[in-house]
Amino acid sequence: MKTEHISGYFDYNATTPISDEVAKSMISAIGQFANPSSSNNYSQLAKTVVSHARENVAKLLNVKAPNIFFTSGGTEANNWAIKGVLSKHSDQPGHIITSAIEHASVHDPIKYCIQQLGYEVTYLKPDSSGAINVADLKGAIRANTQLISVMYANNETGVIQPISAIAKIAHEHSIPMHVDAVQLVGKQHLDVTALNVDYLSLSAHKFYGPKGIGCLYIKDISSIDPLIHGGGQESAMRSGTENVMAIAGLSKAAEEAQQAIEQWNKEYWSYKQHMIALLNAAPIKVKFNGATNYIDALPNTLNITIEGIRAEALAARMEMLHHTIISIGSACSNNKTKKASHVLTAMGLNEVDIQASIRVSFGRFTSLSAIEMFVQALVAETQVLLSISESGICKSN
Amino acid sequence: MYNQIIIDNFSNPQHTGNLELADYEIEIGNPVCGDRIKIQLLTHDNFIDKAVFKAWGCATSIATANIFCDSVCGQPINSITQRSAEHLAQMLGELEPSQHHCLHILTQLHEKLAALLKAGVV
User: Fold this and answer.
1) The pTM is what?
2) How far apart (Å, rounded) are the C-alpha atoms in residues A294 and A186?
3) A115, A381, B19, B62: which sits with the fewest CB atoms below 10 Å from its CB?
């Protein structure tokens, strides 16, 4: 990977570049044409790739390999966990607890279960730190609560949710618990056995693997309905001939993460601290949204409100003039509607602040000098936009 | 993605600024997305000598303000309000659905100028 080509990429929470080692393992697997589920000699190699990948992912999560089920990614894993658990109760649809800051791949299947199957839901709101409150969760539990689904780390703020405490409460009440860990895996050490959750989703492309592959950890397969019926692959839980090349990529990504996660974590944290310090010293007014400390947030993510600017315009200037990519909290959708971040809205930010918010996320191909160039560009472009907007012109917003 | 017209006018706008004394001042805002644009025009013998803007908004809306200013400079003021809808669309180039509100902004700028001329506000 020629890192200088992607030094302006600050959107690692959206997706990460494939690492050289992952690419090599995928190229090597492309020759494994045989069906891993067959029993002939050719299939043996492909079967080995798949079983080795299951071992590598299990090792990364500290669980047993048979509890790992490959999916097409995080969205499929989230959909499966929610619909697969709730379909067990379709004769008596009950209650679901989730947070107001989940990814659409959790919110939308829950919405489907409400509208089509008659479930009820409680959405827990975060406080200004970006985390939901464990006491709120306790208070939301009903006699008929059939699933708790809460993300581990938020994709927009990086704020880590109190999953361990929630899992404990869930088990005290015998409620199955699903965790969307898509943003946390590969950024922070994770021990799913110690965490004792029932289902956990991950996606390879968030930690230097390929798109189109992920998995769902399932503690007890009898607790969830199969996702796809057919040829009996994935212990008959998710049928369909395995995508061996993508699985090989996930395998290598998991292996690399297992080996280097402590080092990545340290690097990200030092970059984040440096970026915070540079921004605080810059001649622009910034406000960090949600917790930014090492314990309560991912070390690679910052959500920042920059006073007086429109994030859309800033992101566009960063891309056009500095080849730098960031993500924004609000965007024009058309003349009559706009799309504002549901996460920042739930955290209580006002409309003007949401429109002025950006997400910066970096990763293993980021360097300290890239962080410094990034802040320099961000400050310069903010000042240009402030000079274009007359003082007070945005007051009516 | 942005077309080249928008990129050029947004990344290097030539008409930003404020006039102490302007002959015409147009201010518009979009209550939904919050975009705000203020245009000031200086005229001489019914020709526009200078056009400047201040704007708070997305890239396309800032580009739109610059495109408007650029297009009116040196033009007889009455000719500007005669522009057709097709002409206005061509000024911005091909837009993505999320950028279509900027055609509305450009139309509004022309309508407001026409209203000022009709009212004889100088």
Assistant:
1) 0.94
2) 16
3) A115
Q: How far is B100 from chain A (nearest CA, A)?
A: 6
Overall average pLDDT of the A84-108 stretch: 96
Backbone angles phi, psi at B22, to 5 degrees: -120, 150
Residue A178: both structure tokens together: 């699903």
The predicted-structure confidence for A155-169, as pLDDT tens digits, reads as follows 999 999 999 999 999
Identify the CA nearest to A27 among candidates A259, A210, A207, A203. A210
State the residue for tokens 């504002």: A340
Q: Going by C-beta distance under 8 Å and a sequence separation of 6 or more, which residues neighbour residue A222?
A: none
Strand runs (DSSP E) across B10-111, as ranges?
Answer: 24-29, 36-44, 47-56
List active site positions of A.
332
Q: Quote the CA–CA distance of B15 and B73 in Å, as a whole number.
A: 10
In the three-class reduction of DSSP (H, G, I as helix; E, B as strand; rest coil), residue A159 is classed as strand
Using pLDDT thresholds of 50, 70 and 90, give the confidence band for residue A8.
very high
**Distance (Å, rounded) from C-alpha A174 to C-alpha A287?**
41
Residues of A in contact with B38 (CB under 8 A): 390, 393
- Judged on CB neighbours under 10 Å (0-12, 13-18, 19+), A143 is exposed
* Backbone φ, ψ for residue A358 (5° rounding): -125, 155
* Dihedral angle sign, alpha carbons of residues A72, A58, A81, A342: negative
In chain B the domains, ranked by start, together with CATH numbers, are 4-117 (3.90.1010.10)
pLDDT of A338 above 90: no
Q: How many CA atoms lie within 13 A of A190 on its CB side?
A: 31
